[in-house]
Amino acid sequence: MNKIVFEIFDPALCCSTGVCGPNSDEKLIKMRDLIDKLKSDFGERVEIKRQSISQEPKKFLENFSVQILIKNEGKAALPVCILDGKVITYGRYPEVKEIYDYISKKMKLQ
Questions:
Q1: By Cβ atoms counted within 10 A, which residue in 26, 31, 33, 97 is the most buried?
Q2: Rg of the chain over CA atoms, in angstroms?
Q3: CA diameter of the chain
Q4: CATH code of the domain covering residue 48
């Protein structure tokens, strides 16, 4: 079975998750929890790549879809979330159901 790749292109964050201070953004906490759940539920079958524009700007330039979204939408395009090369959300983090629906469909096809 092929791995499903989930990529998250975050706006500038204070640390790798953005959940590092007393006033952490609720959206970032939910995203961290979603990543933990994906790792727990799917293990090696899902590869998660998360990068922040402030820490890994080259990664944003290397991805054509992210590059175009930022060019057209500016910073409002971030975060960009990509599953298996397909942009699933931009300007917001995906809901748990969106991710699980996609992964479930993908795994049934494999």
A1: 31
A2: 14
A3: 43
A4: 3.40.30.10
